[in-house]
Amino acid sequence: MADLPVGASGDTRVPTVVADGVHVVHTVRTGARRGGAAAALSRLLRRGEPDPGGHRVHAVKGVTFTAYRGEAIGLIGSNGSGKSTLLRAVAGLQPLTRGTVHALGRPSLLGVNAALMNDLTGERNIVLGGLAMGMSREEVRRRYQDIVDFSGIDERDHFTSLPMRTYSSGMAARLRFSIAAAVDHEVLMIDEALATGDAAFQRRSQARIEELRERAGTVFLVSHAIGTVRDTCDRALWLEAGTLRMDGPAAEVCEAYERSAREG
Ligand SMILES: Nc1ncnc2c1ncn2[C@@H]1O[C@H](COP(=O)(O)OP(=O)(O)OP(=O)(O)O)[C@@H](O)[C@H]1O
């Protein structure tokens, strides 16, 4: 990933992410790769030939778009259409097979699988997660209570003193969101986290996304909840089988997607 080139177009909007012809192919090694001496011998004999145990999935196929400051962009599409893969590619976590991604700053991916540690308490995870998100110790200290309050995990019990493995998946997702949302990001990418919170938490999250956008950031949101995309985003990208089927105002794209789902 490289810094954005300084462009001289008449467009006054500031691009934050430029994806140009992005392709991602996942290669999955199946059973034939493993095994003992017999498998090793068969690999030797097959040298240069394709691995029959290898399986390739062309998850993203030539996706091109430009994201601008202040936009909240929803990524929608059916299961396996390539939304998470595209997000990971933009965040620099997934190698591109072809194409380029230029991004302003370092996009932060806030996933449901973000790296918090199950055996550590919520409290320790807030500190570690905050540091991992680029906060100083002092900032983590200052924002600690806000993060706990925003997540709402202490509302019923003192969960911050308990290991994360005792949390429900919704509580864990809320804590992840709260840590990441405490930092101002140039580009923040959220994978489904909102879908797991309850209604009150979703309202707080939407308000926070709004704030992040106002502070000139770009927010990407992957969601199966079309209502969330419609309410939270102003633009949507619709992926289908790895290709970009539609890119436009969230309301229009969501409507077209729903119509297509209804028609089967
Ligand atoms: N690490 C991986 N290794 C191999 N194949 C993968 C990997 N991750 C995803 N895929 C495949 O790539 C395709 C796109 O998956 P991806 O998770 O990006 O889709 P998605 O739109 O986010 O799906 P969902 O809505 O179900 O979360 C799928 O066919 C999936 O099986």
From TrEMBL:
It comes from the Bacteria. The keyword Nucleotide-binding applies. Residues 39-264 form the ABC transporter domain. Pfam families: ABC_tran (PF00005). InterPro entries: AAA+_ATPase (IPR003593), ABC_transporter-like_ATP-bd (IPR003439), ABC_transporter-like_CS (IPR017871), ABC_transpr_TagH-like (IPR015860), Bact_Polysacc_Export_ATP-bd (IPR050683), P-loop_NTPase (IPR027417). GO terms for molecular function: ATP binding. Coiled coil: none annotated. Keywords: ATP-binding, Nucleotide-binding, Transport. Belongs to the ABC transporter superfamily. This is ABC transporter ATP-binding protein. It comes from Streptomyces toxytricini (Actinomyces toxytricini).
